[in-house]
Each structure stands twice: as C-alpha cells, then as structure tokens.
Input
Amino acid sequence: MKGHTLIRALIALGLVTVTIIASLAQSTQLAFWNFNESDPLDSNAMLTADGGVFASQAQISINLAEIVYNNNNTGFRGSPLDPGTDERNWGLQTTNYPAQGENSGEAGIVVSVPTTGYRNIVVRFDVRWSNTASKFLAVEYTTDGTTWNRVRTLEARRGDRWHGDTESNGGYGSLVEIALPSDAAQSGAFAFRVVTIFDPNTGQYTAAQSGSNYTTRGTLRYDLIEILGEPVQDGPEGDVNGDGCVDDADLLIVLFNFGNPGGQGDVNNDEIVDDADLLIVLFSFGAGC
Output
C-alpha cells in the first residue's frame, strides 16, 4: 500500500500546474493596525487593533521610549504602502529613545497578540526612520514575556524614509515581513518587538542619515502592523495546510520552502524544511482524502 502511495506522490511531483499558488496554505489575520483613525490624536483609538481574530486581545506598548500623537494638531503621515486616502493615512510615531551608549536592545514598541490555535506565524510592518534615529533596529519575539529571540536586524538606507519606500527613494520597496520559527505558534503570551540597537561596527548608536548625529529625539514611525498564522487543525501526519487531506498541495508547500529554517513546511518541527519533512508527506500521501 505504501508503494502505491509513494507512486501517487511521485506522480504528483509532475503536476506543474497553474493551481500551485492557489493550493498553498492560507493565512489568517490574527491582529492588524493601520492607524487610519478619524482622530489620530485619540490614543485609545490609535492603539486599538483594526482587525484580526484576536483584535480584542491585541496590544501595543512601548518600553524606554514614548509614543506621540499630536503633530501640530494633526497626525503623522503613514506608510506609502497604506491604501488609506490622503486625508486618512496615519502612522504611529515614537521618540524619546535612550541616550547614546545606553540600553541597546531594550527600547521600542512591543506588539502582543495570542497565537493559540495557529502555526506558521508571520509578522509584517512598515517603519520610518528620521534622520537622527538609530540606524539599526532588531526584531525579536517571545512566547513567555521574558525571553526574547532575535530574528532580524534592520538597517536604514537613509533618514526620513520608510522601509516601504521605493529603492530609488531610499527604501526597500516592501514591508518588513518575517516568518517566525515554529515555537512562536500556539502561545497565549506571544509578542514581538522592534528595538533600537548599537551599530555592530562601532558599539554605539549610529544615526540613520549619513552625516547626522544620533539623538534621543530621533523618531521611528510604524504602520501596517500585522500578525498572521495558519489554523492548526486535527488531521493526518503530513497534512501541512490543515485541510484534512495529505495531497499535492502539502507536497508543494514543503518543496517551495525546502531549505528554510523552519516555518511553513516544517512538518516535524525540527527548525528545518528538509528531506525528513518531504518523506513524511510522501509516505502519508492520500491519507484523509
């Protein structure tokens, strides 16, 4: 029986069809903020999540810095990637960061949202550096509120620019998007944070804009903060997308993520998508279908 299953799976490898993308696992929005409130000076409204299955439980806070709302009686402009109108496209402004040489890796925003019942967690956001803000930022996550795990370092290309600005305009042309390791799944205490860190070359804060000096009043602005995950469903081993059937869709997910350090396609949760995961899907091919 296993031999027949394996043959069917190998045949599935030849199904290079236009349905590949449609068959991949679909993510669910756990929490989302676009900050496009009618009154951007209303701190409660600005910090309330705008969507997601855990919107009512999601929170944004800040450590060793300050969130500011009033920009001469209006708000602070949001990301160029925000589909909001010109009249209502706001971002979350932060400032009052640590003095030079102090608190590297501690000051910044903290975004908390449960991931219970979800796996393959992904975080997205846009960030804007002012000229005198810290050039280097770290993105970290926790599942217990105490231990933080660093997953990416961000570096400004220039000051007064969003990460989502075009490359020709000094940005990266996209949101920051990070697929987190498998231990970020199914946690009631999940949070991620973006914190200022020292320049690894100098051991001090470096300003985002070449020729400028870092100052505590430098600003970091955020928009389009989103946490996503895939529902965990009871199904047969190898059911990567949780639809109850081990088929070519699951096989393609593993193949498209082969070599990645965990995340989508990591069937056995060993922090690498490799031949072990592929074999699990192959030998379970057809189960539940």
User: Anything to note?
Assistant: Helices lie at 2-12, 20-23, 43-47, 248-256, 275-284. Residues 1-12, 15-24 have pLDDT under 50 and may be disordered.
